[in-house]
Amino acid sequence: MLGMMQLAKKIDFENPDVLFWVRVGYLGCQAVALAIYFITKAKINSKNDLTTLKYVEPANPMSGESEPKAVVTTVKEYDLKQVDAALKGVFQGLAMMGFMHLYMKYTNPLFMQTISTVKGALETDIVKIHLFGVPASGDLKRPFKAAPNLLQQLTGAGAGVKTDKASIDAAEVSGAGGVKED
Amino acid sequence: MYRIPEAAVKTVKKYADYTVEELSSLSLLERISLQNWTIEYVTILSIVGYIVLFLLGSWYNQKITKKYLTLLTPFFTKTFYQYGVQKDQLYIKDVADHFTSYATGRANIAKVGISIQLKPRHNLFLWSTEAIMSFFFDSIKTPEDTVVFDVIPFNNYDNFIFGIVSKLGMDKARKLCYYLSLTRTSDSPKLPESFVFMSEANELQEKLFTKELELALDLSSASYIKSIAFTDQPQERPEKILDLKPSRRVVIQTKLVTGDDQLAHIGKVLEAIFNVIDKLSTQEITLKPETAKKIVRTREIEIGKLKKIEEDEKQEKLADEKARQRKAEREQLRKLSPEEQEKIEKKAAEKRQKKLLKKQRIRG
């Protein structure tokens, strides 16, 4: 990353030729990242692993939840959700960059983001499992343990997902579904 | 030197350039044609385009509904007296993307409501926006052609929740249905791999999952049969205790499919469900007392939760009321003359003193 920053200083972004290639590079890398996710998605669909997966998600106080929520899903559905989350991330990045580059005219972040999306895609747990055939055990055992984000660290909330039988049994029949949305 | 050609210099004379005399000498049509009507043309064309698209989409939705309900006819006319909202009317169009039909007149079954929700084909903007946004936001549903059969039995039987749910989207089903989120999910060797049981007690799966129902499901039917659920609880999470009042019904949620094989499966499922209801109504299937107790326990816990919420609300209201009263008293006090204020304050102080003394006496 630091190396990239040093490199970015040396590049003349005012030069239209350079600018063109930086843009092509960025878009190309986004396309590669998207392709990686779509291939993973196709792999998950073709594997069609319908093993039932149960876990308990911690309550999210930000969206007004007070109780932990049981999730009953299949391996396939869980994996697809992971890929969709990653895809959303790519689209968000694209939208952000669109704003930064086209509206605010910054080119530097465009260059910085070029490699990191592909790197991020290749390092995603779900891609590791399906594209590189890493066995889904140890750190990669579903459900994945997400590192607590800043807000969670501050509030001490959200200790992560639970998979022990006692908490699943308690949360599964708590009648949390069908909440009216208006 | 470059010379501008004469033809280009001579601009087209606009409406405003004409004098009154010139205008009055023209006929009405000539005068109208002098104006620039481009914006009006574009507007009218887009309105017409929108209306045409609306009618096309609306017509197509209606066509799908008609075809689907007609294909279902043999499954209903076999045992039901009436299929369709009236003798000669198969369905009612509620809005351009929602249709309702109905069947009645069978032993043990009060009615079967058929609710068809289609993609908003009449509104391309809505359709495309929903399709795209549903990827980014969980709260927006992906537009889909779905059919919900709501089977309401005639007789009363035990309260319970028992569902057979497709594994594809079962978490969503649990999130959307209050009654499903009261159940425990379990795999079973009796079911195709793509389905799970969601039931309140193991006994339900043994007694309600009949051979007939078993034969009606296969591995691929999970892609269009979303859930089959016996329930006495509502789909929406109750907010008042009254909402928890049991109303028994069987809800079958499916995607709208028109394949012969797929329809045959749906027909078999419906028939199997009707037969199970027959058995429940004639007390051929009854639950063990332990199971019934367990089910009642779940209901009681839910009632307890709502009672607690109501209690909390009451307390809050009471506290509010008290605060308002105190404020009003203070306000009144301020309005009085200084002497009177002093008097009242003295009285209050005396009262406090007395109370304190009383407390000390009791302690001592």
List low-pLDDT spans of chain B: none
pLDDT average of chain A, as an integer? Answer: 83
Tell me the greatest interface. Answer: A-B, 23 and 33 residues
Could you give a short account of the major beta sheet of chain A? 2 strands, antiparallel
**Structural class estimated from helices and strands of chain B:** alpha+beta
Q: Write down the secondary-structure element order of chain A.
A: HHEEHHHHH
Strand content of chain A: 5-15%
Secondary-structure element order of chain B, as H and E? HHHHEEEEHEEHEEHHEEHHH
What oligomeric arrangement do these chains adopt? heterodimer
Portion in beta strands of chain B: 15-25%
Helix content bin of chain A = 55-70%
Low-confidence spans of chain A: none
Q: Mind summarizing the main beta sheet of chain B?
A: 10 strands, antiparallel
N/C terminus separation of chain B: 121 Å
By secondary-structure content and strand pairing, the structural class of chain A works out as mainly alpha
In total, how many beta strands of chain A? 2
Give the rounded overall mean pLDDT of chain B: 89
- By DSSP (H or I, 4+ residues per run), the number of helices of chain A equals 7
Say how many strands of chain B there are: 10
Protein name (chain A): Phosphate transporter (Pho88)
Transmembrane segments (chain A): 20-39
Keywords (chain A): Membrane, Transmembrane, Transmembrane helix
GO biological process, one term (chain A): protein targeting to ER
Structural description of this entry:
The complex is a heterodimer of chains A (182) and B (364). Chain A is mainly α and 182 residues long. Chain A starts with a helix and ends in a 10-residue tail after the last helix. In chain A, α2 packs across α5. With 364 residues, chain B is an alpha+beta fold. Chain B has 2 domains: 250 residues, no CATH class; 63 residues. Chain B has 11 helices and 10 strands. In chain B, strands 1, 2, 3, 4, 5, 6, 7, 8, 9 and 10 form a 10-stranded antiparallel β-sheet that branches. In chain B, a hairpin with an 8-residue loop joins β7 and β8. The termini of chain B are far apart. The model of chain B has no long low-confidence stretch (mean pLDDT 89). Chains A and B meet through β2 and α3 of A and α6 and α10 of B.
